[in-house]
Amino acid sequence: MGTPVALVHCLLTLLFVAVLLHGLALGVRSPRTGFGDRVDRLLAAAMALSMAAMPWIDVRAGPAAVAGGVFTAGAVWFLLPVGRREAGGTTVTTHRLPHAAGMAAMAWMLRVSYGAGEAHAHPGPAVHPAGPGAPGAGVPLGGSAITLSLAFCLLSYALWSLTRPMPPLRSGVSATRRAAAGAPSRHVGEGAMALGTAVMLVLPH
C-alpha cells in the first residue's frame, strides 16, 4: 500500500471525489436544466464515482462488461447532439468531444483491467513484460496505441481547460476567455477530471 502507484491512486481518488462533489454542487445550484444537461451530469457523476473507486475494488468480468457498455453508450451520447448550438451560435461539438473521449477511456480501462478476469486477479507473472501495454496492466494487442491516443486527447484538453481561466497576458482577448476567467470553476473541474483520467490510463492497474 505504500508504493508510489498506491500513493498516486490515493491522490487521484481525492481528485475524483472533489470533482464529483463539485458537479453535485453545480446541479444543486441550477436544478432547472433540460433533459440533455441532466443526462450529461449523471454520466459525469457516474464516471467520477467509478474512477474514484476503480483502484480499490476488484470487479468480475461480467459486471465490468456491463459497466463498460454503459460508458460506451455515454461516449456515443456525447457525440450525438452534433447540431446543437449554444446561445452564442457556436457549436458545442468540439466541447463535447473530450467528454466522449473520457467516457471511451473509462470503457477501455474497464475492458483492459477487468475484462481478462483471472489476469487481473493474478497480475505479474501472467502478464508478458514486453507486451504492447504497460507492465502490470494486462493490455491486449493494440491496447497501447488506443491508450496513448486517449491519454493524449485528454491531456491536451486538460491543459487547455485548466489554463483557460488564467488571467490573460494581453488586453485583447475574446469575450469567452474573459467569461472563463470570471467563472473558472467549470473549466477547472473539467480539466481536473480529464487530467486524472489521462493519468489513470497510463498507470498500471
Q: How many E strands?
A: 0
Largest sheet: none
User: What value does the average pLDDT take?
Assistant: 76
User: Which descriptor suits the 3D outline?
Assistant: globular
What does this entry look like structurally?
The chain is mainly alpha-helical and 205 residues long. The chain is built from eight helices and no strands. The longest helix has 26 residues, at 4-29. The two termini are 13 Å apart. Mean pLDDT is 76; it is low at 87-91 and 117-142.
Per-chain topology:
Layout: H1 4-29, H2 35-53, H3 61-79, H4 93-114, H5 118-121, H6 143-163, H7 175-182, H8 185-202
Helix pairs in contact: 1-2, 1-8, 3-4, 4-6, 4-8, 6-8
Which key phrases capture this entry?
8 helices; mainly alpha; globular; single chain; 0% strand; 205 residues
